[in-house]
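Pair request: fold both.
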Amino acid sequence: MKLGFIGTGAISDAVIRGLLTSDYAADEIIVSRRGERFSTKLAADFDKVRIEEDNQAIIDQADMIFLAVRPQIAKDVLLNLSVLSDKKLVSLIATIPIEDMKAWLKTDARFDRAIPLPAVEHHSCVTAVYPGSPDVMALFEKLGGAVAANTIDAFDGYATGSALMATYFTLLESSAQWMVAHGSDYAGARRYLAALFSGLAENTNKSPDQSFAALVDGHSTAGGLNEQVAKTFEREQGCAAIHTALDEVFARVKAASSS
């Protein structure tokens, strides 16, 4: 299998490094010069990576082509390219509908969209894929796992969920600063909280059949400290704030997809 990447930025870099440190059977990975800081380093680090100057040449030589340019320039980059129907396309471009990209590329080739996050480099991130072609799902399984979205709304929901990353770190930073105000040093508070949440994530991954609600019950006791904080979070409209934020991001994603 020959893979091609049009656009070589941080996400392409993470996907390629993850694949080439897994047992995925890639014969060659052809990357565009654009994003030279990443493409040059990839070619230096891996014998299977080759830089190609021309985007059409990447399409012509690769079996599966990844589109990974910024959405603001996607039309300009793709409009003068063409793709034969026997190729496989995977878009990593946010918000742009498959129908638009097919029109720009003048193709009816099989097309998926995916939302890989930086942790795919270390095979530790589940990637949402729409509609979820078997070979695309198998590729992302090598990078930590894959989940297929059956509808575009479900896929946009996964994209919206990924916007919680900064909120996670905001919660940790706020908690660390509270601990510092009560006598901890920042390094100690950071280490403690990072380990606490890492352990919770590990417990979650080891309990795939348990809902998050069941895990709440398993990590709190009636009248205990964990229950108190959870109830205060709900009382202070923490859950409502998260739902409002996700609703607003979802609306932004849908608006961008239709513009």
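--- second member of the pair ---
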Amino acid sequence: MKNLFSKSSRKKNWIIISTSFVVFAATLGILFYEGTKETVALTLDGKEKTIKTHAKNVQEIFDDLGISLRSEDYVFPSGSTKVSDNLKVVWKPAKQVQMVVDNEKKTIWTTADTVAEALKEQNIALNDYDEVDPKPEKAIKSNMNISIHKAFQLTLNNGGKKEKVWTTSTTVADFLAQQGITLKPLDRVEPTLDTTVKGNAVVNVVRIEKVTDVVEEPISFAVVTKKDASLLKGKEKVISSGQKGLVSKEFEVILENGKEVSRKLISEKKVKEKQDKVVAVGTKVMARQVSRGMETGVEYYVSSTAYTANCNGCSGHTATGINLHQNPDIKVIAVDPRVIPLGTKVYVEGYGYAIAADTGTAIKGNKIDVFFASKADAYRWGRKTVKIKILK
């Protein structure tokens, strides 16, 4: 019995020793395996972690982590870099972004942190007037839409005031709204509000006003003549002085940029009636001795007509022998010698200095006939009362 118990005890101790050895060997193997791993500091999409790895290069690290790399991703150092202890690896995954530049759409992959950095990657330079949505400082997100409107310059003429301005507008209406310009009902815009605007265009805002203008204008008076038998012929006397009237006129005036372009009369009203001037004209003829004739230096009113050297029955020579054909520029009047002796020098109003050198069968009393070289001048003179002065 004692022998059997001893054998069983030895067998059990052997099993325990064998098991302990295996456990020890396994533990030693594990410790050795873990001890041979390299320590790597990872920064994965902004998050930091430290791992121990047996990966031979950076690419194997990502393979072990189940991370698929894109060619657009940022990886530092490169995937072929050999892993060493305390290696630092940075991975920034690329994000897909929709970018629209002045209606031109394209899809890009970027590792930029902000919109501004993404634009810089695409070599898109901005000026102070360009519009970007979202704002340049916004963080990039996957499937983000970035809209860029490039500003351009055009000329704005607002009511006559010109200036160069930058805009990202597409139509004239958008542009005016962007500039804070309000249109009044009568204002006109050139080109029309729905016109697409382009660089170097000119937008005219014509400010139109409709105003009322009241103007007072004088009314001219007429000169009324009345025959007066108590006055000598050729004399005049003012019976009543004329006075101008006054009319008030109301106009509708259209102004464009402050300048008048049209005026329409809408009403008028007499403020003051005019008073015509009344003049008495003498008709009394003073009896004269025919032999005496008109006195030298005295002015008289006579009835006048005109004639030429080419009239029917005319000889072309005056009663005193002057050849009118040879002297077309001479100043000659035909007279009644009983009133104005031949050879008398006179001054005829509207004709000039002349000589009484001719007669005529129709020239009787206070009547003269004025000589002209052309029929046209004679017709223009016609028949009228003129004032003459006897010189000598």
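Observation on the second member. The chain has five domains: 38-92, 95-149, 152-206, 210-281, 287-390.
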